[in-house]
């Protein structure tokens, strides 16, 4: 039985001193801690024989995911060069390159640019809270069903394209969790406050190549202790 594993990585912490809901806004980069988080996850992926033979790395087009993916790439390519990581046939693996895919982007959100907290325009002001009527089915932007559909289309395309191999995908909390929730429960709707996809964490999904059925889902948080 041939299987394809997709390792979904959430980006590291973002530099956001004004506490804005940045969503898809440009100009939001990893913080210093976020880079350290990406380094920790990059080391984990490069040292783990279950992940260091990945044959492709994809990311959302946003800065924070591309920066996280770039750090991961550096670690994986260093492992390929120094440890001579080989494929199952013993052949040396070539350096990886980053590819972006719009289907991996953060969820659309009508509150983009608003502050999270107190002050003028803050998300939690009463006039805004009126719009947040249902945490399971958000009415303020892209639906969980839409998010999961584009993530699912990406995943099923790559299951066939990389049959029997592993790839690494750097995305965002909402897309990763919405897709996982769909796979585990049959529906993507969920309470956004109960997600389990920490910054720089890795959610690995293994699919049967013939049926595209899920064989296993695992989760690790390599950056949990990064200060």
From TrEMBL:
Signal peptide: none annotated. One of its GO terms (cellular component) is cytoplasm. It comes from the Bacteria. InterPro entries: His_Pase_superF_clade-1, His_PPase_superfam, PGM_Phosphatase. GO terms for molecular function: phosphatase activity. Substrate binds at residue 64. PANTHER family: BROAD-SPECIFICITY PHOSPHATASE YOR283W-RELATED, PHOSPHOGLYCERATE MUTASE. This is Histidine phosphatase family protein. It comes from Bifidobacterium vespertilionis.
């Amino acid at each position: 039985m041939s299987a394809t594993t997709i390792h979904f990585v959430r980006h590291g912490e973002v530099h956001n001193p004004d506490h804005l809901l940045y969503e898809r806004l440009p100009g939001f980069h990893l913080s210093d801690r976020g880079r350290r988080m990406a380094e920790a996850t990059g080391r984990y992926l490069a040292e783990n024989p279950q992940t260091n033979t990945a044959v492709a790395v994809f990311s959302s087009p946003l800065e924070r995911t591309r920066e996280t993916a770039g750090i991961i790439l550096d670690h994986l390519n260093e492992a390929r060069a120094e440890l001579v990581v080989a494929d199952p046939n013993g052949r040396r693996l070539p350096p990886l390159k980053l590819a972006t895919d719009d289907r991996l982007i953060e969820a659309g959100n009508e509150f983009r640019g608003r502050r999270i907290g107190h002050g003028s325009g803050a998300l939690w002001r009463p006039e805004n809270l009126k719009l947040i009527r249902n945490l399971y089915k958000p009415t303020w932007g892209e639906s969980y069903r839409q998010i999961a559909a584009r993530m699912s289309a990406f995943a099923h395309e790559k299951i066939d394209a990389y049959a029997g191999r592993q790839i690494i995908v750097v995305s965002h909390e909402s897309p990763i969790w919405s897709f996982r929730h769909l796979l585990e429960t049959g529906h993507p709707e969920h309470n956004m406050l109960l997600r389990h996809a920490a910054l720089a964490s890795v959610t690995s999904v293994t699919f049967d190549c013939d049926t595209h059925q899920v064989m296993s889902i695992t989760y690790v948080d390599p950056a949990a202790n990064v200060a």
